[in-house]
Fold this protein.
Amino acid sequence: MKKFEHWDHIIENSEKWWNHELERPLIQLSLKGIEPGLEKPKLPFCKYISSFGLDAKNEDIMELAEYEMATKKYLGDAYPIVGFAHASDSLSVYLGAEVKAQTTTAWVHAEKQVEEIEDLSFEFDATNAFYKQITGVLESAVEHFKGRAVVRNPELGSGMDTIVPFREQTSLLMDLYDCPDEIHRVNREMQRAYFESFEDCNKIISKNALGYTTWTTVFSTKPFEMVQCDFSYMISPDQFDEFIKPYIIEQCQKIPRTIFHIDGPGVLNHLDSILAIEELDGIQWIPGAGEEWCQHWPEVYRKARDAGKLIQLFGGMDTLDGVAESLGSAKDIVFMTACKENERAKAEEFLNKYNVPVMG
């Protein structure tokens, strides 16, 4: 793969964006379907390394990541990224849950759920087999891709999403009423485990020297995380403020840069409370299955802009066009999209419209 030569551009403009100093949007546009010019890797494509099992060799995982990276070209503000995780809520796995993976997804569940919330306790264990695997893979990736790609954070997940695999969901909802002190105890234990694993993984990633990112691929020169709690779609605003928000605030205070992942209309019930978190940098809104896509929710983005928050978007080119039109400009937006290689002319036209250098 040809060496990526535009790191100065990525760093300068991403930092301006984080600081609300970039007058244009960041647009990460990837061309897909590029002939990689490499031998086919031993491992098949899978979103999560849990698909490969604990016996998978790190060099084979690196070979697959190298191959996948070579199938893309990076235009605008896009750049090479490699990512590894066991699931979208990997922290649950590192705390003892089981994981079952397929090509593009993974399910996490406890072998046996607790009967009572009092029986649930979390303690970070760096000797957990899956955790040892992810830290070993991160070490290999930092060495293998040093200076060529950013190694992103594993998808730890956080909040009560981490607790759900260990306690039947309806029972956990009742615990909010019946055992609030126990919920806070478990939340505090989970939070300690979260920070131990986050800081541990970021110490490894920092050796890469280029920067930090997450599954959303926003570049940052400082540690960055997507914070979230999908469980919150089932609870009231008062319960969110009591059982979820204090732990999100702590994450936003301790992690230099954070964006909140709002997943589905149910979580929008807490939008005002989320936007009121002073230390939170931005939001990502995902409408969810069966809902109209982002550009059809202008009120969400108007609230975010009025609150001084950054905005992260995925989608087709009409997504950015629609949101920018409703807001009056595309400033403070980072947008991720992709085209086929034979659509390069269309991609360049789109970048030019927003004054984004093509670069690639």
User: Anything to note?
Assistant: The first strand starts at residue 26 and ends at 32.
